[in-house]
Every structure is written in C-alpha cells, then in structure tokens.
C-alpha cells in the first residue's frame, strides 16, 4: 500500500520483493483481509467497513448487493469516482463490477437485473468530516492510528480528530493546484514531461506544532507518496537563514559587511542568480536578495562543523547535511514538514516544538483513548534575541527582497 506509482525499475523490483515476502509470510485469505481493511476508498474512508458507513450510513454486513458492488468499484479512483463526488461515474463502475460477477457465475441474471436497477441512497458527509481534498492528511492519520493501536485501528471503531483546519486545507490545496498549473504553462503540458510535476505544502502553528494544512502531492489518486513528509529534497536558498542565525551566535550583526565577489578557488566558482556581483554588502541585504557568495563566505567564516551542529538543533538530520561549502546554498536534504518546523523556531521566539497531526482519538462511545499534550515539549534552540533579529532579517526578504514578487 505504500509504493508510489513511479515507473522505475527500482520500484518494480521493490514491488516484487514485497509481494514475495507477503506471500511467504501470510495466507491468501489474510492478505485479502488486510487489503480490504486498509485500502483507501475516498472521503477519508479506509477499508470497506468504513466506506459502508461513509457512503451508505450502515454497517458493511447490512449492505445490499448493489451497494457492495459500488464499493467494490472504488479502489481504481477513490477520490474522483466515489458516489459522493461523482455518482454517474461510480454507477458506471458498479455496473461493470456487477457485469463481471455475472460473467463469473457469482450472481444470477435476476440478481444482476435487480442490483443494476436498484435506486441507491448515498449519504452526504455522514461522518461529519469536511469534503475538502485531505487525502494525504487522512492517510497519515491512518498510519499514526495504526502505529498506536495496530489492527484494532480498523476493528475498534475509533474516531480520529486531526488538527487540520478545513478552511486552511482548502486554501492549501487550491494553492498547490494553482502552482502546478502555473508550472505547466511555463514548461509545457504534463504529457510532454518525463515525470509528472509534484508539489507539496504544509502549514504549522509555530506556537503549538499543530499541522493546520497539508497537501502531499499533485494527486492522491496518481501517487500516495507524501512529498510533504516523506520526500527528501534540497532546500536551496531557504537554508540560508540557518547559516546566518548560526553566524549571529558568532558575533555578526545585520549591518556586518560581507563581500559579494567570486571565490578565490579555481575548483569551484559559484555565481549569483542574476550572474552579477555587487561587492561589499550587509547581511540584511545579502539575505533579502538571496546572494549566494555572502552566504558561502559566512559559512566559511563560522566553520562548517559548527554550522552543521547548529542546524541539527533545529531538527535537521546532520547526516543529510554535506560537510562542504555548498551547504550554504542548501545542498543538504530535508522534508517540507521538517523545514517548516525549523522555521517555526524563529516564529516561536527561539523554541522548537515537534509538529503533530492528531488532536485526539476516541472510541465509538466518545471515550478518549489518546489526546495530544496541551503542554507540548519545548526545546530552546536559539536565544530570544537571535530569533528577534532573524525575524527582522526575514521581514526584509518580503519587504524589499526576493519575496516581494
């Protein structure tokens, strides 16, 4: 269930190995049971039992043949082919399933005609959840619930309440889709590209760590790989503030002058985005304009080992930070969620709080089985003064620098 749909030889081999291991370990009936209990069926429903409640408001055992066939047609495209979103498409899939059951002798001609002509009553948001695009949120919540309760997460009838805001989630989804559309206009149609472009967005409450919105990719139907939490990507220039924050601890200030000029190293000659050098420049202006050479010189001045250790306090994996000068340009790797949490340190007066998604979990009777701690564990990473200065520097980015457009 956790493979992406990336068409690579490595992915295919991984799929073969997983299938072989599952076949060796579990009987066929158990494999089918696991699939039916965990497969995503749209509208935040995982497993056929949950889908029965979501779409028809009743237990799986109470469904008719017509209703069951409609659920059986969902795995192909659960987000766009479910009866709440697109009933005509769901109906066509149901009729296909019924036709296959008839052809295989699983039902009679009379049963086929009766089920095909049955008028189905589909529940609308029966579980009280919002109908926004939160498939990646639901999948992560499912994984976290399974980590805590094991198989009981699917059989105990638990209710999982997340920290996500429906308004912010809708805004996040719209922003990602708009960004992808803009990218498509600049680079041509997706069909002409080797791989479909992906995007991710995560929004945190810096003071609590609560995840308020998360979009893990372009489409959950085409790839369930969560780029917000699982993808390790180079942060690029978004890593520069952590270099300057480390330098503040070593005595530089926003007014310190740093030379924006070529390096005196013939082995590596990096340039700026505009291919220009402006000479001596203040730290404030260097960060506002995202100049590369001042960031590199700052890293060289404070020392690479010190900078890596300093960044590790923000939550970055030090193993993913290369011990070379290009580190100043963000050549390490991290996830969007980890990067957002690291920036949260600046917004939270120098304190680091781990992000979390689940607010609480209750059983069917409303008894609380798990609740997020109101007083989250807080770790001071930088001084309040350092955080204040960094916020001022970052404000310059959006007031007069590269963030103005």
CATH superfamily of the largest domain: DD-peptidase/beta-lactamase superfamily
What is the second-level CATH architecture of the largest domain?
A: 3-Layer(aba) Sandwich
What are the segments in which pLDDT stays under 50 over at least 5 consecutive residues? none
Outline the biggest β-sheet: 3 strands, antiparallel
Sequence of secondary-structure elements: HHHHHHHHEHEEHEEHHHHEEEEH
* Topology, number of strands: 9
Report, as a whole number of angstroms, the end-to-end distance. Answer: 40 Å
What assembly state would you assign to the polypeptide chains in this entry? single chain
Count of folded domains: 3
- Fraction in beta strands: 5-15%
CATH classification, class level of the largest domain: Alpha Beta
Radius of gyration: 26 Å
How helical, in percent, are the residues? Answer: 40-55%
